[in-house]
Amino acid sequence: MNWTPEKIATLRQLWIEGCSAALIAKRMGPDVTKSMIDGKILRMGLKREGKATQLLTSHPDYEPKMPRENRPIPSHSQVWEMSDDERRIRFAQRAAKGARQTRQALEAAGQ
Fold first, then answer.
1. For position 80, what pLDDT does the model report?
2. Going by C-beta distance under 8 Å and a sequence separation of 6 or more, which residues neighbour residue 23?
3. What whole-number distance in Å separates Cα of residue 44 and Cα of residue 20?
4. Same domain assignment for residues 83 and 53
5. Which of 68, 12, 76 is nearest to 44 (CA)?
6. pTM above 0.70, yes or no
7. What are the pLDDT digits (tens) for 40-80?
8. Is 64 within the bounds of a domain?
9. Both 41 and 85 in a single domain?
10. Are residues 9 and 40 in the same domain?
11. Helix (H) or strand (E) holding 107
12. What number of other Cβ atoms are within 10 A of residue 25's Cβ?
């Protein structure tokens, strides 16, 4: 694509207004993709300057994240607290379940 001064001005104006790269691509026409917009924005050095964060936090449904020290421990970390034998059993059970589901899907598809 050839970036004309008019297209660059349109891109800059829509970016300043707060439009996403996908929306800018839609507005600029079918020959423009989101990736092209992202690349041009990067090369132009355009920044949002915190607008997205301000918009997010001003939304009535916004709830701040729980502080890291108060978050529950994810279940995958419990695997590493197991003994080696318990871990082997757990992984073997998951592998068997996956094989069973694959076999059932193939049977349902008639293979």
1. 60
2. 14
3. 16
4. no
5. 12
6. no
7. 999 998 877 655 555 555 666 667 666 666 666 656 655 56
8. no
9. no
10. yes
11. helix 84-108
12. 21
